[in-house]
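Sample pair:
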Amino acid sequence: MSKNIAIIGSGFAGMMAALGASRLRHEAGVSPEEMTITVISPKPELVIRPRLYERDPQQMVASLVDLFAATDILHHAGSVEAIDAAASTIGIVGADGSATTLPFDRLVLAAGSDGFAPPIPGLAEFGFAGTQLDEAVALDRHLHKLATKPASAARNTVVVGGAGFTGLEFATEMPARLREILGKDADVRVIIVDRSAHVAPAMGDDPLPFIEERLRTLGIETRMNVGISSLDERGVTLADGQHIETITVIWSAGMRASPLTVQLPGERDNLGRIVVEPDLRVPGAPNVFATGDTAKARTDAHGNFAAMSCQHARRLGAFAGHNAAADLLGLETLPYDQPAYVTCLDLGPDSAIFTRGWDSRVEVSGEQAKAIKREINEIWIYPPAADRTAAYENVLAARTIDF
């Protein structure tokens, strides 16, 4: 009787989990009929989420149809709404509202994460986000519609809520993007607002001088040690009472794991991620593995844990898929590790910084780092070629090679 590995999500972790399971199945000489691998997601595609701050976000999608065909991976179109780990089933709702129950022998939860929107008055009505494709497309359309409005301080001002990685990439993209839309001589204004004492609080001290200098060069203002208390059709009001006229507020402060994590046993962290075992198994659910943004996984022996990033998601996925297949075949699973950690922060049209280590030591900056960022965004994070050998080499590299 055929065994089935079900993988929830076709993001970076889900794609790599499917390829990892397929690779081990192939190496073990098991046919696709004997062990099926099924990815469940609305569409067989990978949204390139790290690029959603860029122009034309609707283009940041890569089809997985040919890749899945080349590696004998099935796709089930729909959204998972229920997980019953004890019964080994998942409940799926299709785009037409039809309900399906899919049994599994092993499950990989790679459902990703969503932006966290706190209950700030007016945020849902007047704010924008860019962590999901539809959000980024809506923001892009709004920006282009600004050109149809009369010039005003509100039209020409963008407020970015959040001074972390995502907020900085959106903010530093905005001056040039606004001038393309409103005219090169437009008097544009970009303001970052955050409760932290300084920008990029998670990156430590080393990158801070370069980031702050870059913000000054681009004319980007910051309002630190203060939060946004409300939004309305005229602008935002900060917690200190200051009001900023704007019709464009981009919220980028925080992520939360897929709510599907609450349907599984085990401890969760403050981001909603399941604290997994070394091989990414969910405690209390031996037939389920969590990966990507749904897993809080230890990366090394020094107390570091995987971040919500495609860098970690790709490797986490490769391990999770391999381990789900290995467990089903009666083979030893592998403990996940990822001792190397790098970041590449985009800082506008011609600059970036590349850092290494959890203390974010700057190794490359300026135009040279920007070239690295382009290569990451345009080549490294895209799916491998729709060729079995190339795909399997890619997933092995993700599991074994450190930067």
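Residues 123-199+208-250 form a domain with the FAD/NAD(P)-binding domain fold (CATH 3.50.50.60).
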